[in-house]
Amino acid sequence: MALPKKDILLEWYRQMVLIRRFEERCAELYQRGLIGGFLHLYIGQEATGVGAVAALGEQDHVITAYRDHGLALARGLDVNAVMAEMLGRRTGVSGGKGGSMHLADRDLHMWGGYGIVGGHLPLAAGIALKIQYMEEDGVVLAFMGDGATNIGYFHEALNLSAVWELPVVWLIENNQYGMGTSVERASGATELVQKAMAYCCGPNGRGMKKGPRLDGMDVAEVYEGISEAVEHARKHGPILVESLTYRLEGHSMGDPQRYRTKEEVESFVENGPIGRFRSFLCDKYKDIESTLDKIDDDMLKTIDDAVEFAENSEVPTEEDLISHVYVE
Amino acid sequence: MADRPITIREALSSALREEMHRDERVFIMGEEVGVWGGTYAVTRGFLDEFGAKRVRDTPISEMVIAGAAVGAAMAGLRPIAELMTINFAFVAMDAIVNHMAKVRYMFNGQFTVPMVLRTTSGGGKQLGATHSHAPEPIFAHFPGMYVAVPGTAYDAKGMLKAAIRDDNPVMFIEHSTMLQRRAPVPEGDDFVLPIGKSDIKRAGDDVTIVTYQKGLEWSLEAAEELAKDGIEAEVIDLRWLRPLDLEPVFESFKKTNRCVVVEESLPMFNVGSEVAAQLQNEMFDYMDAPVKRVAAMDVPLPYADNIEKMALPSPEKIIAAVKEVI
Ligand SMILES: Cc1ncc(C[n+]2csc(CCOP(=O)(O)OP(=O)(O)O)c2C)c(N)n1
Ligand SMILES: [Mg+2]
Predict the structure, then answer these.
(1) Is A49 in the pocket of ligand 1 (CB under 6 A)?
(2) Residue B310 is part of which domain span?
(3) Pairing with A211, which of A75, A94, B102, B161 sits 20 to 30 Å away (CA)?
(4) A324 touching B, CB under 8 A?
(5) Distance separating alpha carbons of residues A74 and A54, to the nearest angstrom
């Protein structure tokens, strides 16, 4: 597969930097007490989110778990509104009622982040059922963590998608830990994409396709792998893909990280997704550094503006508290 | 149009059939709904009539039955998902509580969840502790969804059609021992009952009996017996536990000043607890006796017929409770 044009590659770079700066700022705001609750940062996993979402068209759909900021930004949710949600403002994407774990934008087919591990996987199947039922063209890209492959929801949702041949790309973001439990300690199969074989190969080859294990630190590889997976899902039905990545920060804020060594984390910092892509771009295009530097500066400014927007936004009202429990 | 006596099973079938003809987006999914014809034969013939696209057999996967229905509803279909019995709803609890009921609120109204989760409830068939639950109050605990508990064929039809047409998620609970009960039901597509309206099933001035579903049957039987002793009970059928309509209960209580709540569910944290608390708050000045509650005994339901019966409410227990408050 040919690599996209330069402007697209620059857009990926921009998105990855945007996410990184967004997450760093969120960590600061959390320390200052401006963000409450849980805060699950996407730092280290940017290439997976950006590369995978880049493989989708407007007609396609995204759904994920609670580690959702990066995917929301990659899908094009307004950064101001996402930041406002973090700060619990009524201008937030979910009106300040969802918080960090529950970012959604129906118009952009971002169906949300979900706080219950695996809970969104049946929803993904249901959205895909609607696509199939109405004979639409879309595909659902459903992200999940490595830990989520051990919960019952995973097995029920993947199995149903296989039986009904639903257009879903199931994407495991294997960042090697579910909280403090490594994949080896939590899963019988450690090559997680093998789990596809449990739902594979019914009559006429019907069922789940076992997709590739991607280098989730390489945005271009993720893009290519997910592009092919999306094509498969559109034509033939579900496919399971694994992206090998790493979470560079704690699980949520205030994680003492007793389950891994500093050296292990350092080894991934050196080869992090953004630095790696930057080197790639600098090798490929002469004189691109100043362009990249400008993107870096612009993203800092974008985040400053987003924080200003959020801080100047109103907090939800008592009316907001009681609205949207039911359709009136 | 004329009323025709039909069973609750027929009432449910005709409601489903009419709504599926009315709206292409309505479809059925669940265990044994298609080829088998429905565990309680409610969807018999549907597979032939509507095809496999709209009558969808699922694997034994309660979590994904409920959860996929939520996703499909959010995306614009109008699923009727069936859980074979309410005993298996516990397996799907997270999808029901955290997603069916909450996605609308959590995302600030961006999504609607126009789905019905149909299931059957109730003990009394010697099925033992795991298969004899009547846990309706648990589901009524959560804002964001409705809970329907029809007790007659008339209500079953009108309420199910209302549930399918409404844009909110509805847990629609039928009683597994009442499907053959017969009552006159209006013919025609446009018979739809309002959501969240209770109904006076028997008028009386001496005591208010608040109940639903199987409790309704026991209460009406008790009321006939009590009438022989000159005690006229007003029997109010809640029909919906959410939205809960207690206005007719308050009105009735103003004249009777006495109330007994009857239900098949367990005795702690149940419908009776709620009704008693609200009566105490709203009707304290009218209260001539403590509110009595008749429910199942506080034990898992056993297998042996004699002690299972012992554990369940009965007209005799209701009569005794009424006599305590009179
Ligand atoms: C059903 C359920 N059980 C437990 C939790 C608590 N919990 C939150 S995140 C998490 C780890 C999930 O790991 P993984 O799926 O690998 O995702 P990651 O955090 O690595 O992105 C756990 C156990 C939960 N939210 N939901
Ligand atoms: Mg993980």
Answers:
(1) no
(2) 199-325
(3) A75
(4) yes
(5) 8
Ligand 1 contact via A69 beta carbon (within 6 Å): no
pLDDT score of B1: 58
Rounded distance, CA A293 to CA A277, Å?
A: 14
Q: Note the pTM of the prediction, 2 decimals.
A: 0.97
- Domain CATH for B224: 3.40.50.920
DSSP for residue A251: S
| CATH (domain of B146) | 3.40.50.970
Residues B175 and B305 grouped into a single domain: no
Q: In angstroms, what separates the C-alpha of B186 from chain A's closest C-alpha?
A: 28
Query: B186, B210, B226 — which closes off a domain?
Result: B186
How far does the CA of residue B79 sit from the closest CA of chain A (Å)? 10
Q: Read off the pLDDT of residues A238-291 as tens digits, 9 standing for 90 and up.
A: 999 999 999 999 999 999 999 999 999 999 998 899 999 999 999 999 999 999
3-state secondary structure A60-121: CEEEEECCCHHHHHHCCCCHHHHHHHHCCCCCCCCCCCCCCCCCCEHHHCEEEEECCCCCHH
Judge whether B192 lies within some domain.
no
Q: What is the pLDDT of residues A19-70, one digit of tens each?
A: 999 999 999 999 999 999 999 999 999 999 999 999 999 999 999 999 999 9
Total tally of structural domains belonging to chain B: 2
Q: Find out whether B173 and B136 touch, Cβ atoms under 8 Å.
A: yes
In a domain, B191, yes or no: no
Nearest listed ligand to the Cα of residue B93: 1
The strand pairing partners of A174, in sequence order, are A244
Burial of A301 (0-12, 13-18, 19+ CB in 10 A): exposed
What CATH code is assigned to A6-310? 3.40.50.970
What separation in Å is there between the alpha carbon of A179 and the centre of ligand 1? 6
Work out the average pLDDT over B91-109: 98
- Cβ–Cβ < 8 Å for A131, B74: no
Last residue of a domain, one of B158, B186, B214: B186
B70 closest CB neighbour out of A102, A123, A324 = A123
Which residue CA neighbors atom 6 of ligand 1 most closely?
Answer: A117
Which residues of chain B are within 8 Å of residue A326 when distances are taken between CB atoms? Answer: 104, 143-144, 168
B132 touches chain A (CB under 8 A): no
**B12 and B160 assigned to the same domain:** yes
Q: Which ligand is nearest to the CA of A174?
A: 2
Residue B193 lies in a domain: no
Respond yes or no: is residue B133 known to be catalytic.
Answer: no
